[in-house]
Amino acid sequence: MKVNGKHYRSLWWVESRGELEIIDQRWLPHDFRIEALTTMQDYADAIVEMRVRGAPLIGATAAYGMALAMAQDPSDANMDKSWDFLDRTRPTAINLRWALNRCREALRPVAEGNRADVALKLAHEIADEDVDICHSIGQHGLALIREIAAKKPVGEPVRILTHCNAGWLATVDWGTATSPMYQAFDAGIPLHVWVDETRPRNQGALTSWELGSHGIPHKYIVDNAGGHLMQHGLVDLVIVGTDRTTRRGDVCNKIGTYLKALAAHDNGVPFYVALPSPTIDWTVDDGVAEIPIEERDAFEVTHVQGLNADGKISTVQVSPNGTQGGNPAFDVTPNRLVTGLITERGVCAATPEGLAALFPEMAKVSG
Ligand SMILES: CSC[C@@H](O)[C@@H](O)C(=O)COP(=O)(O)O
């Protein structure tokens, strides 16, 4: 997507230096900083500290991490050690393990001398595939938005609420939840997006920055506003992303998503989840019982970062001295609250049958 008129992906390979560059998302939307990842520790830190974030982007970054590991030492022992090292960075988004497994399975039969090249090619492949997948998600989501627009008086915007940042910054390009918005807007459908702030990390500010760069009308709202807006008929549909979707269609996403789904259900507002197939965990059925929820540092809750009056990025304390914070980073929305799943192969019901019909080969393997 474009930043000041220039096209960026959220990560890219610099051939001349043999390095991966990323956008350090900790400073957005106030400062656009690019950073090179040159050591395995850099890769792990980038994921843990959320310089790169969002399930698909974490997966693509990990694939490049495996490529670096193979360039340093292509042995089986180092491959397994690097798999563990990167897998430990964040527990909830399944795309991380999906990418690591895909790399390890592809590299195992390759002669050590060829592993570095094959691993880098695979990382490029995973990144490119993500772009294509997200574009297709956008096409299928566009059809849904078009249907809603057709029932409205000409010129009235389709009002979409979204939570967190499932935008191009969270993927390699396009985003998942935002891809239908970009494509609908480009197709001339009037839109208005309600952007949840998404405390504590305020990923909504990233979404606002993205939508603003694309010219899409939107308002940045506090997380607690969604229910009120839905009660007053001001939301036509909700589209969110996901970090892990179970084989029966339970959806794990950024903390607060579940509350939005409850409010949508109570008010008859369609609640859609956009996801690339690598986000489906075919080994898990019951998301509430089985998905590990990342507990992050309480500092993210007790403190908040923003621009101060001097225009400098600074951090201030919100809670009283000594208050303990709690910071579960994700929650699970049971499939009964999900109207549909927007995937690269089409839209399906959030049920085992719905997912199996779109991805029969995966459903079969997982039994
Ligand atoms: C296309 S991204 C989908 C999800 O990864 C996104 O909604 C989300 O919850 C991101 O969480 P984050 O903690 O910012 O990595």
Number of domains: 2
The whole-angstrom Rg is 20 Å
**What would the average pLDDT be, to the nearest integer?**
97
- Top-tier CATH class of the largest domain: Alpha Beta
Structural class: alpha/beta
Task: Tell me the CATH architecture of the largest domain.
Answer: 3-Layer(aba) Sandwich
CATH topology category name of the largest domain = Rossmann fold
β-sheet strand percentage = 15-25%
**CATH homologous superfamily grouping of the largest domain:** Translation initiation factor eif-2b, domain 2
Number of helices: 13
Low-confidence stretches: none
- The number of distinct β-strands equals 18
Helix proportion:
40-55%
What's the main sheet like? 7 strands, mixed
Please give the order of strands in the largest beta sheet. 8-7-6-9-12-17-18
Pfam family, one: IF-2B
Pathway: Amino-acid biosynthesis; L-methionine biosynthesis via salvage pathway; L-methionine from S-methyl-5-thio-alpha-D-ribose 1-phosphate: step 1/6
GO molecular function, one term: S-methyl-5-thioribose-1-phosphate isomerase activity
Keywords: Amino-acid biosynthesis, Isomerase, Methionine biosynthesis
Architecture overview:
The chain is α/β, with parallel strands linked by helices. It folds into two domains: 2-129, Up-down Bundle (Four Helix Bundle (Hemerythrin (Met), subunit A)), CATH 1.20.120.420; 136-365, 3-Layer(aba) Sandwich (Rossmann fold). 41% of the residues lie in helices and 19% in strands. It is built from 13 helices and 18 strands. It has helices at 40-48, 55-72, 76-87, 94-107, 112-150, 178-186, 203-214, 226-231, 257-266, 287-290, 299-302, 352-358, 360-365, and strands at 2-3, 6-7, 11-14, 19-23, 34-37, 158-162, 191-196, 218-221, 237-240, 244-246, 251-254, 271-274, 280-281, 303-307, 313-317, 330-333, 340-343, 346-348. The longest helix has 39 residues, at 112-150. It binds 5-S-methyl-1-O-phosphono-5-thio-D-ribulose.
